[in-house]
Give the backbone structure.
Amino acid sequence: EPEVTQTPSHQVTQMGQEVILRCVPISNHLYFYWYRQILGQKVEFLVSFYNNEISEKSEIFDDQFSVERPDGSNFTLKIRSTKLEDSAMYFCASGPGRMNTEAFFGQGTRLTVV
Amino acid sequence: KQEVTQIPAALSVPEGENLVLNCSFTDSAIYNLQWFRQDPGKGLTSLLLIQSSQREQTSGRLNASLDKSSGRSTLYIAASQPGDSATYLCAVQGNDMRFGAGTRLTVKP
């Protein structure tokens, strides 16, 4: 069964460093998303991406974040200068459509900023 | 701003019980509602998707209902099993997807 895959599963980085989280969405999906879940808190929407551009973003998704679809299969989230409060589980999701279709989530990347 | 609330926050039941998890949301202008399962430290597994025009969806022992006008959804789990132990999240899709905090379910053998 097709699935969304994320790498790495766990990343530890020093404060101030740049990190890139990688995702391979399901191949025929057109909409891609990033969410994060700080330990013990709700899953929060970060950004949605369609047709090679951001379609929606939350207030969390500030200038230190960026997303890219560098090729036909990968979807990346870059955090330019990590802060301690960026430590969270980051989930990638994809869907065939936007509003009326099911979103499929990856297993997440646990980011720890030290 | 859409707010999603789930009650109870935690629930512990003996194996075999039928149970109901509740989800409420403040803005009824949604496209769909999705229920997920999350095991500790793991990703989100989609359980059921209910379109805004639908009233319920069923998958095996799971049944989810949606009353969009009152901003409520329930997830009914029949004949619960220890393997059902997990956190159950509901999420509503508007311009973005908003999640509840989840109900942590423990089914005791």
About this structure: DSSP finds no helices and eleven strands in chain A.
